[in-house]
């Protein structure tokens, strides 16, 4: 109701403004908007308008249609021109200007910028709630999508603008419409860790396990990035904790690798398989043993509590202890030994954990050893202390 009033006020004031322009004539042509300018042109004797009157008198319907077409074309051109201004005002969050331009007939469908956004998309991305509400009230298409098929809801979800996501959902925005590569608004919000937006999307019927082309679910994306609130929301909504990416990596594997202990605990509690290994036979325990720092100890402890097999070999025959030793991961070596890991276990080349201690120091340029960072092998006495532990 309030926005309708605003619309009327804007309409009345813009008509008044036009009246002024008409009286004064297009003397200041440069500063006139295209709307005002085209009105001026009509005043100067637009031949089409003249014809229009004559034909109206003659009551010739086919010619009338031609006139209407020409007038329509003119109106569309004007709406488009005003639409460009509307787009700019929408992107900047200038709600007054947006209202005024809508009142003057600006097109809501213009597309600008690298992504070919509509005014609704750009204001959603930029977090301008009042503009979004104004555009929705004016009838902007909530399901339109940009060059890469991102909708306004996708953009608000990605950026974490909760009230905007709610406004779009209330206006009937398609909750599962996906970006290229099948990334849904839920996936984007989960990946970015926007728990409240995730919650709103789930309430609105978002498909909880809708995965990307690489079969990455929203849960996997949240687990990878350590977003424990989002992980819990998705699990409560029935997300499958065992759903792997196309590489065979589970959410638990990626959370373990990245040392996200609270996420690991949430996944295990929800029944994630502690043993699930990827194509190389790398299980969560191997991944966690490679992670440097205290998080490694916490994750390895959780996995062992969930009965992960302590000496499970990967496809190369490496046990978690061998992995931890080769990365100089002192804390984890200590924990694994304490929990009964086999210290004489050997890799396929016959090397023991002791042989491999701090091997990462000598493997510069090997990307699989990229996690040999300070706190691991580079600590001065790490090598000696691990060798001691393994005796
Ligand atoms: C002229 O066209 C308009 C819109 O198409 C129509 O409503 C109107 O009846 C037509 N008038 C005549 C005189 O044909
Ligand atoms: C948007 O898409 C949803 C889901 O397909 C549909 O229910 C709704 O009617 C659409 N809204 C508009 C305005 O097209
Ligand atoms: C995950 O996989 C494990 C091992 O197959 C199974 O025992 C467990 O029930 C699965 N969890 C869920 C929630 O499906
Ligand atoms: C890691 O844990 C040790 C032992 O509990 C503690 O002294 C140390 O401060 C922790 N380091 C970090 C970075 O949390
Ligand atoms: C782990 O195994 C022990 C012994 O078999 C069993 O009592 C316990 O319930 C298991 N724990 C989990 C989390 O499966
Ligand atoms: C420990 O590993 C060695 C070498 O692979 C093996 O021979 C031995 O049986 C293992 N010990 C146990 C208790 O599994």
UniProtKB/TrEMBL annotation:
Residues 1-21 form the signal peptide. InterPro entries: Ankyrin_rpt, Ankyrin_rpt-contain_sf, Dendritic_Spine_Reg/Scaffold. The keyword Cytoplasm does not apply. ANK repeats lie at residues 115-147, 148-180, 181-213, 214-246, 247-279, 316-348. Keywords: ANK repeat, Repeat, Signal. The keyword Repeat applies. This is Uncharacterized protein. It comes from Ostreobium quekettii.
